[in-house]
Every structure is written in structure tokens, then in C-alpha cells.
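Worked example

This section walks through a single chain of length 71. The input is the sequence exactly as stored; nothing has been trimmed or padded.
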Amino acid sequence: AFASALAGEFARAEALIETCLDLDPNHAPAHAISGAFRLYLGDPAGVLPADACALALSPRDSMKAVWHGLE
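Given that input, the structure is written out below as C-alpha cells.
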């Protein structure tokens, strides 16, 4: 998904993340990445629910600072 995003293929990147979430809906990093992709795809309203889900699934995850710029 990151390679697709870096190549500017955000729709493909989002599709890959959605496949990941279909396979494992509890994968917190995929929710966080989905939020970032939604912003790039022009869906700012979709960012907060995706980020909130990632934080709810893994509130103590060491990567949350990277995902969300927290702390």
C-alpha cells in the first residue's frame, strides 16, 4: 500500500488497505493508514473515525506517534 501511495496511486493504496481490513478488521495500523489515505483522497470526514478506531484497537501501540503525530 505504501509503494502505491508513494507512486501517487492512492486509490490502489486504499483498495489494498481495504483488503487488509477485510481480512483482519482488528488491524490497528491498517485503520491508521486508511485515515491518512482518506485525507489524501479528499475525504477529511473519514480521517477521524479511522484514526479513532486505530487508537481504540491499540491505545498503547508504540507506533501511534508515527500514525497520528501524537505525544
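What to look for: The radius of gyration is 11 Å.
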